[in-house]
Specification:
The chain is α/β, with parallel strands linked by helices. Helix content is 42%, strand content 17%. A 5-stranded parallel sheet has the order 3-2-1-4-5, with helices on both faces. Strand 4, helix 4 and strand 5 form a beta-alpha-beta unit. The chain is globular, with a radius of gyration of 16 Å.
Length: 168
Amino acid sequence: MKPKIALYSGTFDPITTGHIDVIARAAGLFDRLFIAVAAAHHKKTLFSLSERMDLAQQSLAQIANVEVVHFEGLVVDCCRLVGAQAIVRGIRNGTDMDYESQIAQMNRKLAPSVETVFMLPTPEVQCISSTLVREISQLGGDIAPLVSPPVLLALRNMHAQVAHPSKG
């Protein structure tokens, strides 16, 4: 029997407990789950691609059937590259649903054999977004419940470097 392989893509700038919730539950549905970190040339990211990949790997280390990869271009091309039959997408609210359903329909046109699976995060993490985490962190708020310990440390270190740049 062919293994069930899925791909969950995003910028993950940074990966949050909301992402981890969806990933952990999706990993239970598939034999293999690829976390595809987008190069995101179209937007300015807080963390570099290699930092975002490292933080994702550290945050997901306890989930055995998850592998972190990077990609540029179309998600469906990344699916073909890793052999994924499904794309996993997290849906937090109606706005996400409107946007994600349009993307899913276009992906179906581009790759008819790849299904999109929508997953709702658990209520405790449903309101979390990377954008809000970055803003709260930058303003000195407590983000510990919103991110994994490696992400928390990386954000604290980044803010410390901004506040106290090394002279040299």
